[in-house]
Each structure stands twice: as structure tokens, then as C-alpha cells.
Amino acid sequence: MGNNTVLSCPLKSNITLVTWKISPRVGGHCTLGYRADTNQTDRTNCSDSMNWKSRPDLDPALEIQQVGVAQEGNYTCELVTTEGSFHKTYHLTVLVPPRLRLFCDAQGSPVCEAAAGKPAAHVSWALGSNSSLQEEVHDSGTVTVLNRLTACGTNGSNTTCLVFHPTGNWSESTDC
């Protein structure tokens, strides 16, 4: 999320034609094309954030700038050379790190929130106590996970929330 990424295409000599066919999760299909005989590139319905990494005659790789959830989807490079046709397909999945928040509710119970992560974070407590878990799925595909400690046998001492996610793991403590 937010980084640039490069998708490579089979690197072959004697390129005749290169086409990137892009089917993002959000929005319509787009294509980037290159014809060697006329040394021309063409783009149809592609955002400015998607372009050739360099010159397609030297390297047919696709660069996506500032990757976001909207760029998730299928990316296929089709390459035609004098030796035949080649293709490579990617399924791009974007990971979004959750925002961690630990607070005490009106009843004095610790609440741990991992907001807007993709995929959903796993939220738990360091001490095995009773807790209630809620998940809210957002239109963007991100998920907020809320874990409320309902029975805390650690009165007067710190309680530690643990958050596990493919983008990293976090822990925070509070004393409600």
C-alpha cells in the first residue's frame, strides 16, 4: 500500500508486440501496448499511475506507482516475438497495515482496535481472559477488528493487546 511496484514480463529478444491487459478490482479494464515495427506505444483507459517501467523495447515491465486497494486485480503481459508468443499473469493483492488504538471504555474495560487493515488483523490479549470480538468490513475491502476485554483478572495492572498482521505485529499495554 502506497509503494511503487514493478511487474516483469518475459524478457525476450526480437520483440514484435507487447500488451499489458489490466483488470483492476475497481474501474474498467485497461491496456498498454507497444508495436516494435512502428516503435509506438498506446494506452487505453489506464490511469497515469500505470506505465512502462522504462522503454518497452528494452524492458516490457509495468510500473504501478502509489499502489492502492483500487489497483488490486489481474495483470497479464502478452509478448509476441519471432520465436513465438509468451505471457505471464499476476494477481495483485494489496496489504494495508491496520491502525492500532488501545483505550478504556466507559465501564473501565480495555478495548483494542486494529482499524482498516487488509486482510483483517488478529487481535488478542496477552493474558487469556474473556473477550468479545467485533469485525466491520468497509467498502474499500479493509476490515476493522475490535476486541473488548470483558473479564479482566488483572485489576490495577497493565493489560497487553497483541495485534498480528502480514504487514507486522504490534503490542500495546494499558492500565484501565
UniProtKB/TrEMBL annotation:
GO terms for molecular function: signaling receptor activity. Gene3D superfamilies: Immunoglobulins (2.60.40.10). InterPro entries: CD200R, Ig-like_dom, Ig-like_dom_sf, Ig-like_fold, Ig_V-set. Residues 1-93 form the Ig-like domain. It is a single-pass membrane protein. GO terms for cellular component: external side of plasma membrane. The lineage of its organism: Eukaryota, Metazoa, Chordata, Craniata, Vertebrata. One of its GO terms (biological process) is regulation of neuroinflammatory response. It holds the Pfam family V-set. Keywords: Disulfide bond, Glycoprotein, Membrane, Transmembrane, Transmembrane helix. It is found in: Membrane. Belongs to the CD200R family. It comes from Scytalopus superciliaris. PANTHER family: CELL SURFACE GLYCOPROTEIN CD200 RECEPTOR 2, CELL SURFACE GLYCOPROTEIN OX2 RECEPTOR PRECURSOR. This is MOR1A protein. Coiled coil: none annotated.
